[in-house]
Predict the 3D structure of the following.
Amino acid sequence: MRFRDACIPAGFLWSSPFARWQGPLAEVSGLELAVRVTGRALEERRFDPGETGSLVFGWTVPQKEIFYGAPTLAARLGAPAVTGPMISQACATSVACLAAAAASAGSEPTLVVTADRTSNGPTLLYPNPSGMGGAPEVEHWVLDAFARDPWAGESMVATAEAVAAEEGITREELDEVTLLRYEQYREALADDRAFQRRYMVPVEVPRPRGKPLLLEEDHGVYPTTREGLAKLKPVTGGGVVTFGSQTHPADGAAGALVTTGERARELGGGEGVVRLLAVGFARVERARMPKAPFPAALAALEAAGLDLREVDAVKTHNPFAVNDVYLSRKLGLPQDKMNNYGSSLVFGHPQGPTGLRLIAELVEELRLRGGGVGLFTGCAAGDSGAALVLRVED
């Protein structure tokens, strides 16, 4: 899908810090987190929510009162006359939300909000009148989804092991990529987190007693060393994926404002615009999820009328280091040519907002370079993938 005139004003992509599940955001619902983060982001950017024409809300983990999600969110942000679609597409949610906003971009901006809390995910009871004694069917929304794809019949980690086995990807390769990704993330922490401060919005977390907690940086990122990685055992017997070379579930929120190029330049105050060029979606063979970012990237590049040689920066959603090894081989792109300043392998995986944070980082990297073309690509549940191509312009 290619877009005609869909832009984001410079500085109008943001993300909260991500917190490892059962951390400081564990008791803040995803809907409440979306309100707090988005409200603060818009206030810092001096944008009146009442100027929005529509809202797209992306989430993947049900929260209390999510039935009224988009209208409630809009009203609480100060735009009671605005609503819009709610989108849930696992880790492709961010790209799907931006695509929905870009497809109908107008002079009245569309507010894109994504939020998820994997902590304390709901346990659902489904009526089963035919069951023994009428006992209900039970589903733990987060854990059961990680453990088994109902179509493929495999866990997510099993998809990584399957691709590693087929492609001859070794434990040593995965550890090297993991170590590199951690070092890249550390670059974003330099100079008192100067890079992250370009897009990251602190979250004020209420507490039962005492003053609220102000979460200003990622929580739960463990220091990574070559020696530490070598000591870890594989997650599954005989496998190559460890808890070091896969990501962790997390909580967080991210957002953006999408409008026309003319309106984006006005809102950006002369700082330039982010032009959304095209998106691509793909699905690969059963239980081979880490392969999906590659065809998704090709689809997005083709729709944009570009090839990889014209891309200046690449970011990936990489829940497994296997993803990046496979993508690097297929694209012929060295590992150190993608994921500057970090990736979800290191800072976590709240699903819905994960892609949007990575896209925010991609944009800020390009802004520091003086502009250029960026590619984001990542996998999602159901052996699917989603990709976005954008250009940062003066």
Observations:
- Residues 171-187 form the longest helix (17 residues).
- The mean pLDDT is 96.
